[in-house]
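Most newcomers find our protein records easier to grasp once they have seen one. A record pairs a protein's sequence with a compact description of its fold. An example says more than a description, so a record of this kind follows:
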Amino acid sequence: MRPPAGRARPWVRVRSWLGDWVVVAGWLVLLGLLSFFLLDGFSATPVDPPSAAELLPYDLLIAVATVLPFLLYLVVTESSASHASLGKRWNHLTVRSISGAAPSRRSVWIRNLVKVLPWQLAHLAVSRFILDTQLPTAIIFDVAALALLGLVAVPALTGGQGLHDRLAGTVVTRVPR
């Protein structure tokens, strides 16, 4: 199935996402190295599983250290003159409004908040699974992350608009060469 004229082909969208994940991986490697050296090699002592209230500061720290920088990267690059993240630029794609105009800053924020939400929900689920605590909550976060990921990714990979683009009124298009 071919996407509508001007829309990005699914395999090009995948390459674009992979390009952006290279940026994410670089950031996470840097964070890991900094943590390793600052925390003296990750030496940890076993403790009792934390309560929900005790997990909250860690949840916030992980969101601020990982999800927030990625969100800001997407918003800054897609609000730039090229309206494209590095992955999109490398694959000759751009984010536009439905009318074909440049997207508003508000649209770019909405688009990317919805796009990174599955990642944050997955963090919340994984931390609870790893710590073997709050398993019902972990399952809820996991199911919500997977459902939202499906609503974001599947339509985008079949030539349509993912939930993030529908809510923001945006579309990813090919840049004419």
Notes: The CA atoms of residues 39 and 45 lie 13 Å apart. Confidence is low (pLDDT under 50) at residues 1-5. The two ends are 23 Å apart (CA to CA).
